[in-house]
Structures are given as structure tokens and as C-alpha cells.
Amino acid sequence: MEFVAGEYDVAVVGAGHAGCEAALACARLGLKTIVFAINLDSIGNMPCNPSIGGTGKGHLVREIDALGGEMGKAADATAIQVRILNRAKGPAVYSLRAQCDRAKYKLYMKRVLESQPNLDIRQGEVCDILVEDGKVTGVKLTTGAIFRAKAVVLATGTFLGGKVIIGETVYDSGPDGMHPAKYLTESLKRLGIEMMRFKTGTPARVHRKSLDFSKMQIQLGDEVITPFSFEHETLEIDQVPCYLTYTTEETHRIIRENLHRAPLFTGLIQGVGPRYCPSIEDKVVRFADKPRHQVFIEPMGRDTDEMYVQGMSTSLPEDVQIKMYRSVIGLENVQIMRPAYAIEYDCINPLQLEPTLQFKKIKGLFSAGQINGTSGYEEAAAQGIIAGINAAMYVKGKEMLVLDRSQAYIGVLIDDLVTKGTNEPYRIMTSRAEYRLILRQDNADLRLTEIGYRIGLISQERYEKFLQKKKMIEDEIERLKKTVIAPSEKVNKFLVEHGSSPISTGVRLSELLKRPELSYEALREIDPQRPDLPRSVKEEVEIEIKYEGYIKKQLQQIEQFKKLENKKIPDWVDYNQISGLSTEAKQKLSQIRPASIGQASRISGVSPADISVLLIWLEQAKKGSK
Amino acid sequence: MEFVAGEYDVAVVGAGHAGCEAALACARLGLKTIVFAINLDSIGNMPCNPSIGGTGKGHLVREIDALGGEMGKAADATAIQVRILNRAKGPAVYSLRAQCDRAKYKLYMKRVLESQPNLDIRQGEVCDILVEDGKVTGVKLTTGAIFRAKAVVLATGTFLGGKVIIGETVYDSGPDGMHPAKYLTESLKRLGIEMMRFKTGTPARVHRKSLDFSKMQIQLGDEVITPFSFEHETLEIDQVPCYLTYTTEETHRIIRENLHRAPLFTGLIQGVGPRYCPSIEDKVVRFADKPRHQVFIEPMGRDTDEMYVQGMSTSLPEDVQIKMYRSVIGLENVQIMRPAYAIEYDCINPLQLEPTLQFKKIKGLFSAGQINGTSGYEEAAAQGIIAGINAAMYVKGKEMLVLDRSQAYIGVLIDDLVTKGTNEPYRIMTSRAEYRLILRQDNADLRLTEIGYRIGLISQERYEKFLQKKKMIEDEIERLKKTVIAPSEKVNKFLVEHGSSPISTGVRLSELLKRPELSYEALREIDPQRPDLPRSVKEEVEIEIKYEGYIKKQLQQIEQFKKLENKKIPDWVDYNQISGLSTEAKQKLSQIRPASIGQASRISGVSPADISVLLIWLEQAKKGSK
Ligand SMILES: Cc1cc2nc3c(=O)[nH]c(=O)nc-3n(C[C@H](O)[C@H](O)[C@H](O)COP(=O)(O)OP(=O)(O)OC[C@H]3O[C@@H](n4cnc5c(N)ncnc54)[C@H](O)[C@@H]3O)c2cc1C
Ligand SMILES: Cc1cc2nc3c(=O)[nH]c(=O)nc-3n(C[C@H](O)[C@H](O)[C@H](O)COP(=O)(O)OP(=O)(O)OC[C@H]3O[C@@H](n4cnc5c(N)ncnc54)[C@H](O)[C@@H]3O)c2cc1C
After folding, report:
1. What would the 3-class secondary structure string for B155-185 be?
2. A161 Cα–ligand 1 center, Å
3. In which residues is NAD(+) bound (chains A, B) (predicted)?
């Protein structure tokens, strides 16, 4: 029996990483919000490695934090090891990564949701999205309960039509032994939404005491921890080690000999898997000449002996799994606690979304996370906060938020999704960003706090602290640019000691800092006027000055980019009427309906010639000739 | 594809309360053990109220502890409120009860299992029990993995063929959104095991902030906490309150008006529910004249706002649930986080078990917990430790452990199950025990530590501490019996002040202590020689002396009882050949095959006349005339 169980501004379907951020954003923006999960014990669950951040992903987490999201704080609160990756590769790709305590992360996130005013949490399976006259009006549970809502955010992760695959064994299931969502796919199809079928996989969890760490390389956390959240200046935790080991020829032989039983190759798995997060059988086939692959052994938490075997996700049959894992160095006697598995699930084709993450066809219906064809906790959370903000803006009748590719990795991620679509689980990578030197993890607050504040997710207090920090950075940069160091014995001794050439005329501190061999920290010795500054300020100052030239160049490129982004295309355009466009361009443009010439130019199949045609057409349209 | 994945002494199917105790017992007794769970996140899960102990149940927990089990320690480690119930009713029924933190309890139990030498933990669904020549040989997972084992303990709880029911909505599921076990029932049936279908239910979980506690009665924990485990002399925790409120006429009206939609009455629920843990609709129907029912609001943990609504379990449709809960005093604006539901599941008819919990028909196959037709965490754990011990004894070829009704509530529970069977989920109650004054919770260690030690689950160190305690008790009792208090002004003043009559001749301290108005604590004033003794010793001394008369009487009854228990019936008896037995007795005795005259006498349908016939037959058999 159907009945109305509640009236809300926003209903969020799913309390994974996307759903949590979306729900928190809406509630924090003052909207009456409800978030659903099939199982409340799985709020904020990490069904794969309990690790937050990493290359590109760490950037997303910091951007989420700068906008007022929760993921960074949750990672800080539950981290058991923290490292900055890519230290050797330069600050553009420095990436923060935390190994977290999976159980504590879930409890932390559930606690935050429970404590959030305006937010109700509800266990139940949403089976239907209610739409009237092209506008969303609510959701329905399998029990018949209808929750009316002005906006709805879909964040169903890998649950829609979930199917777990372990070798020949296949059964309906969500991740981590949860119920799958059995009905929502059909409801979305009835609404005319195009669905895709993707898959992802996870390795086995093994018992710590069955491993021989003496054969592995220990991986310790950073001595001084950089927190994820800009609200945390420092973070002190008792860190646990991870370990690095390798597959062997034997591993590869076992895999090759059992490829005829690998669901990935027998056709049992139909969903498309992530190319950049391949299973081990995939790696062994695609990189046939590689004699070994890295395997990281990472703890699932502080108070558990479960360990994650990173790099060896698989859907091979269990008997093959056992042999395969036991052939890895140090895993000779490994005791599997949970076998590896793959999961297939339904997701939407993200080309159906606007850059706001609203469905083009259904007003008030937003979508975020793995359901949009992505993979990864951080990718999910990044979309979640944007979908949440925009659902709130929609309800309030205010302008929605779109971050562009020059503002944030979040912008890159969403622009890629809604402009290019994806035919495999999409994950962020630093190589996807054109303006990497601008989109650094260290300056995410400088890029986005202002926006978070304007939207209402950054408190006055935090905003003022941020302005102070900004001023400190500017002041210090200015001071360094103004301070001239005169040549002296002391100074030149210092320079030579640091492998730097001595000076004979006065040189600005900023110039010295640009020398690769001199760090801001080292320069303290010849910089007696230096003020005492927080870690984050010093970091910023150093990068801004050291890379000033490159940064300037990228800022110029961004100006060019912005010009095309700002050439908005009216939404009534009928591309089929524009002569001169190629057939493919007409079709793609009509499908994707880009918001700007910039976006149009990134659509595959739309050529520079097509863009010229479009630009001319736009000029004419403006002149009122159309 | 089938393959052998491991060789074990004992395989335990299930890591709920029964499975955890069974697995720990086996591993601690030195056997190579593996325990399976469909989902490792649910080890030690409490799908209903996260409360351990209570009337009768508290006794079981202490007995488990005295035998070397884990439940008492887990409860102590995760308690958030502790009380002794029935304080007014005398020490026989004093019952310890702890409200625990559900999430922490699970993590604690998983940690203990992970840290236990000889024990492997494995996620997987057992689909088949392997038996050869009437002896168990192992189990098979759905992935084809075969784990050979000399003994197997079934502890599958409410997962077999699990079906969740909320009003008209029914779906396959284990408790708490877990996968059900879909195949094992068929495997058991193929082995000739008779299955039954039971059901149980749970109320909604609601958000703390939506409740009006000012309308409820607060329930605080005890000022001085008595721990569950005999290894803990004291326990200091920061306790949280619970609350008492009531249903209203309106609640009952809503329920009555919706009985036509109650699965319990429409026939949708076929499984038999627990009479002593009825759903609210059941209570409203059965006690139609009661104007209100008690409702306890109890926290699900320390760091969560989820609250349990004890007393209002239901399978009514969700719309009725909402109205019904909102009609309870203080719940007018209640926000449901998880709706109430009932679950139906397959269990075995426990008459197929020996008192050792081994299947009569299949050697090496044991069964414990909810699968045996019981309900409750403590009942499950109690059976679990016995099944575990006996699986170990079976593998070692040693004598199995059977506790009789005079030794422990565990004995009462198991004897009831295997002698009388049950046609509804069985739970322990103090009224089920004949020798309540002996089977107290305070003396569980005195009753059972010796046995736990002999079996090998109690360490030498703990045993020696226990012997010390026992000696302290005996010494103090003796001292009290010997110490004569002479009449004096001081003594008589003390007596009169405590509402007790003055003495004119010397009186032993033990005699004074027998006066109801005088406590051991109070008597300190006139007992200058009193040694400084631990809380638990003082408690024991007081009860043993105060109730000495009654205790003696029960000990005599137990002697009588033991006589019949010791009259063993050989297992080759053919009851159909014994003339003089009633037809019903013949049939029942053949089915149950009691181990002793005592057990035979408790079988319903076996009359005192039948017992006389049996006794005579036994005498003759002994004389060798048969
Ligand atoms: C086996 C496995 C392996 C993975 N491996 C990797 C990897 O190697 N690398 C990587 O980056 N990422 C990996 N991931 C992906 C990562 O877990 C997800 O990207 C991330 O969790 C997605 O977040 P989400 O918020 O979109 O969805 P989820 O975290 O899946 O959350 C979905 C939420 O929606 C709820 N829900 C779903 N349907 C309904 C409904 N109908 N009604 C009510 N509630 C509903 C669920 O209860 C849940 O709360 C893996 C995931 C799985 C399952
Ligand atoms: C909804 C609900 C309400 C309840 N209400 C009450 C109540 O009011 N009062 C009360 O006293 N008790 C109640 N109970 C009962 C109490 O929860 C159980 O009695 C107790 O948990 C049983 O413990 P157990 O160890 O037998 O099984 P469970 O705790 O259910 O554990 C079963 C274990 O077996 C595993 N398992 C099952 N099948 C397989 C398989 N094929 N392969 C591998 N692993 C398997 C599971 O993963 C799990 O680990 C309720 C239970 C439920 C679900």
C-alpha cells in the first residue's frame, strides 16, 4: 500500500561517499533532507581498500574540504597511516594519501550524519523515482512509503542490479555482502534514462599473522603528517606500516593457466571494468612481458588483523585465487579471510547530465558517484557535494554551481563525464587536467574556499581564518620579493654549502628561492626578518615563488580557455539547422547540448572546423540576425 | 568446480553468538578450527537490542564465563549501562543485564576471533555439509571450496532461508540487511534432518533527537557495577541512561484497526514466533484489557543517536508503524531510522540432538544457537560453548560434556531442547529451572570453574585464583559460624537501630546474618575481626548463610534428581519390545532416546507409570535376565 511518509526538500538515495556529501551539503544549506541507505550499517562504507586520497584523488579530497565537505575530516579522524605520494615529481602532482580504519570511518561518517540538523537518515530500499510533468516529486520505498521531495539525488553506487562474481559462482548481491537494489534500474528506465553495465573488483582480505613481512619492504608513513582538511593545521597519529611485495613468475603462470576459467575472459562478466584499476588477470594478459607486479599489503584498520592485498583484485575462481596469492612473495602461507570478487552493476550514461549533475530531461533529479560511471570513493564524494549543492540551489531557485576545468579537479571530472561520457568506470588522474600547476592539492583552499563561503558551506569563522592565511601568504611573498640579500661572506658560505652559486650583487630572496637547490626552510639561515608562519602558509609561499614562471604561463592559458567557456550556447539551439556542421557533430552536439563553445570543443567527434562554424553562427545569432 | 581448500579438526558454520563461542572453545582446546560467516562484518552481531543478560539470560552469561567462554568479557568491554534486575526478588533471580555498544561489541568479538591461535576466519556461504558413512567429513562453500573437518558445528542463526516481512512487503534476507543462506537447508534435508520454520521480530530504531525524554522515566545504571566476567572484580564505565515510557489507548486502537494488515494474522507469516517475546500486535490482541504496555528506549551505542524501542517489535506495515510509534508517550515526533521487521527462518527440530548437541544420526555434526529453535544471544552462546567443547571432545575421542539441570541453566536449556523439543523460539526463564536457589548467577563460578578447568578452557592461573576465592568464602563462612557475639549494650543498640530484636545470650554471627533485616555489610559494626574481602566473596558468603536452609533443602532435592539422572538407559534399548509402556511413551522414547531415567521422566507423554515400567525393566536388564 502506498502512503506518504514524509515531505522533504531533498531526498538522497544512497549513503555511500557520494550520498553522504550530497546529504550533508543540502542539510547544511538549511534544506530539510532525508538520506536513504539499504543498510544503515554501511554508511560511508569502503568496500575496497580503506584508503582515501592518492594521485589525483588526494586533490579531490582537498577540494571537497575547501568547499565545506566532510571526506577530508573523516580521513583525518580515522587515518592510521598518511603519506604524500609523488614527492619526487613536483608539487603539481604531490598527492596526499591516508590509509584509514575502515570500521572507524563508517562509524565516524554515520555519527556526522546523525548529528547533522535538518537531516533524517532512513534505512529502506528506494524502488521508484516519482516524476510529474518532467519534474521530480519524490521517491518510493519497497514498503510503499512515499517521501515527497522537491529534488532527488541518486547516489546508488554499485548496488543497482548488483551481481557478485567469483569464478563460476555468480549471485545477486551488493558490495560487502549487502543486499543489492533490485527495482530502481527499472524505474529509471521507465523514466527514459539510458543505463550501462559496469563492473569493478576487489582483492582478497588476508590474515596478518599468515604473512611473512620479513620478505617484504616496509612502507612507513610520513614523519610529519599533512592533514587532508584545511581546518586541521597538524595531525598526530600513531602510524602503522604498510608493506610492498611482488608477484612471481609462478603467479603469472597460475593465472595464465586458468584464463579459461576467468569470468573476465569467458564472457561471464559483461560489465565493463576500469582500465586504470585492472584486475591481476587483466594485468598479466595486457603486460605479458612484465616479470612481476607490485603488491601492497595494507591494514584494514588498527584493531583488526585483516589486510588488503592491493594490486591483486580478481574474479578468478576461489581455488585459483588461493594458489595465486600463495605464489606471491611473503604470502606463501596466506590465510584468506574474504575472497576476491568482482561486482557488476547498473549505472547511467553520464552524457544525460548537465554540468550541474542534473538530468537534462528531468528537472530536480541529480545523480552522483559510481552511478554516473565513475569509480572511487573520492570521485564519488566530489560529485556528491556538487550534486548536493545544486539540488539545494535548485530548490532555492538560485544559480547552480559549475566548476570549470581551470578551477578544480572536480571540474575536470564532471566536465569529462558530461562532455565525453565514459565507456568504463572513470577515475581521476592528474593527466586528465590541463592546468595541473594551478590545480594543486596545496592550494585547493585558495581556489575554492571563497566559493564554499558564498554558497554557504564555509562558516564565517573559517572564512575569516582563510582570509588571514591568504593575507599571510601574500604578505610573505611580497616580503620575499622585496627583501634584497646583500653579498657577504656568511651568505656566500651558505650558498656554497647548499650547492648554489655565490652572489656578487644584491639578490632578492624570491630569486634565491627559485633556485632548485634552495628551499624556503633552508633560506631561513640568511633571512633574519622571517616571520613565524604556519606550515601551510610556508608551503604555499614556496611553491608560488619557485614555480612562478610556469604558473604564470598556465594562468595565461586559462585566460584563453575561459574565453571559450564564456561563450555560452543558448539552450534552444537546433544543431540540425546549422549548415556547415558535420553530421557527427550535429548528432553529438544535439545529444550532449554543451553549455559553451569550450565544452563543445571537447566533445569527441566535434572538430575545430565545426567549432569555427559554431562560433560564426553564434556571432550571427547575437547580432540578432537569427 | 569442487576443490579442497583446507583441512581442519573443526569447522564452525556461523560467527554469531553461538558460532563465536563454539569456534573459540575448539581453538582454545588446541584444535585446528575454521569459522565461516556469510559476512565478516557481522561477527558477533546483535540484530535486536544490543543488550546482554537479563532475567535468566544473565545466569547463562555467567555460566559461559565460568566455563571459559567470551560473552561475559565482551559485554564487560563494551557495556554502556549495567544493572542488576530483580533486586527486590531475592538472589536466586538477581539477573545482571548490560546495555552494550552494538558496533563496539562486533569489533571486540571480531578482534578476539582474529587474535585466537588455531582459528581461521573465513567469509563464505556454506551450501553443503559433507557426510560419509554417517560421519561428518567437512563443508562445501558456494564457490566450490571444500573444507575437510572431523567435526562440524552448525550455528546459522536466522539466516537459513531467511525472509524479511514488513507488512505486505516480503523479501529474501538475513537479519540486518545481510544475505540469507539459500542452500544449506536443502543440504540438511538431504541428510534426513527434520526442519522447522520459526520467526522472530525486532522493533524500529529511532533517532534520539526526535524523542521527548521529559515525558519518560529515566533509568540509570547501578552505582556500583557488577561485571559479568568472574575475571573482572570491578568495572568502571561512564554509564548512559535508558528511558521508560508507555503505549497509549491510541496505540492499541491503531494496532487493532490494522490487524487485517498484520502479517501475523493474515497468514503471511507462517513461522512460529516466540510467545515470551511477543510483537506488540500480539500483546495487544492477547492482553486486550491492558490499557498500556511498557516501552523502554535504549541506546544502540555510545556514539550513535540510534535508539532501540524495546517492547514494540512488530511486522505491521510501515505506514501503521509510523502512526503506532508516534502514539507512544514521548514519541509524538519520532523519526524512524530503521523500520521494525519480522524474519522467518529455517531451524532444526532439536529432538534430533543428543544432550551433547551432537546429531543422533550423524556423528561429528553438532548444532547450536537459533538453528536449534532457541531465541536470544545468550541462549545461542550457551549452546555454542557446549557444542564447541563437545566437537573438540569428539575429535579428541574424549568424554563429552553434559551439564544437568542441577548444575547450570545451560543444562536446563539444553535438556529442555533435546528432551521436550520446542514449537516456538525457546528462551530461557528462571521459572524453567527447578533448582533456582542453587543455580544463582553469583555462584556460577563455584558451580562450573572446576569443569572449565578440567576441560581445558580455564587457565591454571585463573583456576588458582578461583581456588583462593573459594577458600576465602569457606573460611569466612566458618568464621561467621564460629564467632559468637556476646550481648552488650553496643550490640543491642546496633540491633535495635537496625530494627532487629536484641539478644540476651551469645549468638553466632551467622545466626544474626540470617535475620532478613541484617546485612553482611551492616554487621561489620559489631564484627571487629572481620577480614577485608573482595566484593564477590562477601556477596557469596552473605547469600550462602542467609539462605542456608532453603539451599540445603534444594541440595537434597538435587540428590533425588541425580539418582534418576544416574540411572542410565543403554542406547540399544528397543522400547517397542518393553511391554507395559503406553503407545505414546513407546513412540516418544524411541524418538528421543533419553540417556537416563531422569531425562525419560521429563518427556511429555511419558507418565510416572511408564517410568515405573522402565525402572523395573532396567533392573531386570541389569540382572542380566535380558
Ligand atoms: C568490490 C568493489 C571494488 C571496488 N574497487 C575499487 C577500486 O579498486 N578503486 C576504486 O577507486 N574504487 C573501487 N570501488 C569503488 C568504490 O567503492 C566506489 O566508487 C564508491 O564507494 C562509490 O561511492 P558511491 O557513493 O557512489 O556508492 P556506494 O559507496 O556504493 O554507496 C551506495 C549507497 O547507496 C545505497 N543504495 C543503493 N541503492 C539504493 C536504493 N535503491 N535505495 C536506497 N539506498 C540505496 C547503498 O545502501 C549505499 O549506501 C570498488 C567497489 C566495490 C564494490
Ligand atoms: C530481527 C531479529 C529479532 C530478534 N529479536 C530477538 C528478541 O527479541 N529477543 C531475543 O532474545 N533474541 C532475538 N533475536 C535473536 C538473536 O538475534 C539470536 O538468537 C542470536 O543472534 C542467535 O545467535 P546465533 O549465533 O544462533 O545466530 P546469529 O547471531 O544469527 O549468527 C548466525 C551466523 O551464521 C552465519 N551463517 C548462517 N548461515 C551460513 C552459511 N550457510 N554459511 C556461512 N555462514 C552462515 C551468519 O553469517 C552469522 O555469522 C532476534 C533476531 C533477529 C534477526
Report:
1. CCCCCECCEEEECCEEEECCHHHECCECCHH
2. 12
3. 273-287
pLDDT score of B625: 52
Tell whether A241 is in a known binding site: no
Residues in chain A, pLDDT under 50: 626
C-alpha cell at A164: 557478485
Amino acid at B570: P
Minimal CA separation from B293 to chain A, in Å = 25
Copy the grid coordinates of residue A205.
582480505
d(CA A410, CA A394): 20
Find out whether the beta carbon of A13 lies less than 6 Å from any atom of ligand 1: yes
Name residue B96's beta-bridge partners: B84
Residues of chain B with pLDDT under 50: 626
Torsion of CA A219, A224, A225, A229, to 10 degrees: -160
User: Looking at CA atoms only, how far is residue A106 from chain B in angstroms?
Assistant: 10
Which of B7, B41, B322 has the highest number of chain A CBs within 10 A, making it the mutation to test binding with A? B41
Q: Determine whether the shortest distance from the Cβ of A351 to ligand 1 is under 6 A.
A: no
d(CA A43, CA A522): 46
Cα dihedral sign for B212, B214, B217, B220?
positive
Across chain B, what does the average pLDDT equal? 95
**CA-CA distance, A227 to B409, in Å (whole number)?**
54
- Chain B residues whose CB is inside 8 A of the A39 CB are 176-177
Mutate to test the interface with A, among B111, B338, B341 (most CBs of A within 10 A): B338
CA A349 – CA A362 distance, rounded (Å): 14
What CA–CA distance (Å, rounded) separates A385 from A414? 12
Looking at the DSSP bridge assignments, the partners of residue B51 are B99
Give the dihedral sign, CA B433/B439/B441/B444: negative
Answer whether A110's CB lies under 8 Å from A120's CB.
no
What CA–CA distance (Å, rounded) separates B429 from B230? 22
Three-state helix/strand/coil letters over B77-122? HHEEEEEEECHHHCCCCCEEEEEECHHHHHHHHHHHHHHCCCEEEE
Q: Rounded to whole angstroms, how far apart are CA atoms B246 and B252?
A: 11
Residue at A497: amino acid letter: E
> Which of A39, A103, A143 is closest, CB to CB, to B107?
A103
- The verdict on a CB contact (< 8 Å) between B1 and A168 is yes
Phi, psi of B233 (to 5 degrees): -80, -35
Q: Other CB atoms closer than 10 Å to residue B312's CB: what's the count? A: 29
Contact A114 B5 (CB under 8 A): no
3-state secondary structure of B309: strand
